[in-house]
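Deliverable D4.2, example record:
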Amino acid sequence: MSTPLYTTTATSTGEGRAGGRATTDDGLLDLTLALPVTMGGPGGATNPEQLFAAGWASCFHSALKLVAAQRRTTIADSTVTAEVSIGKSDDGALGLSAALTVHFGAGIDQQTADDLAAGAHQVCPYSNATRGNVPVTLTTTVA
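Output generated by the structure prediction step:
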């Protein structure tokens, strides 16, 4: 990577994902963490997978808007949902998988929607960082 455009710092304290806290250097993010009920925890607080999903969905949506603007394609009422799963592989190691669902409002055809989402997947820094490491399913829908 060449010169960074932006750098941030986050710190985890306490018990990490199992009852710790996550904060950013600017104080804008300050969260209690908890294991989800489905993983044997108490739930009731956020977890790293939720944070990752929120970051990826937001970043991918920005990439989608960028690609649409570059291709001079108007998109309305678009949303991006990132579903991030944590699970064990056959060898017992923990890993992530993801499903990205891109929804477009009226005024765009399915092929254009698919092309824009594929373009965003090539541009998005989260997609680039996880490519080859995290299995991703990309789905597009049009109203």
